[in-house]
Amino acid sequence: MRRPFESALAFLISLVKNIAPKDSIEAMLAVQMVSVHAAAMRSACRLALTDDIPQQESLTRALTRLARTFASQIEALSRHRNNGERAITVRNLSVQDGGRAIVGNVTQHASMIVAEPNVDVEDGAIA
Length: 127
Prior knowledge:
Strand order of the largest sheet: 1-4-5
Number of strands: 5
Helix content: 55-70%
Order of helices and strands: HHHEEEEE
Radius of gyration: 23 Å
Largest sheet: 3 strands, antiparallel
Structural class: alpha+beta
């Protein structure tokens, strides 16, 4: 039978594997994310078990900071995986009469939009 520490460690390792890091930066970030998550869960458990108001306030602050850190780490992993670019997907688009839309892959850099050639849609016809 596994000791509790070994079971917890195996669980944490499985979380890192499920994040599926693709390079050493992602691996380090995944380990940090799992550690922050574990600390947040410990804080949440301790918060649920205490009746001491000052301790509740302290644990609430710690839990809030850990949750914010975890959210920042998720964003950092996403930015790293997307080479610093945020992916935006538009699922539904309505174009009124006289309107124009671009159909295809569009990449925006600073103040310039680059689209694939010959995919401009104007008045319902592909150019």
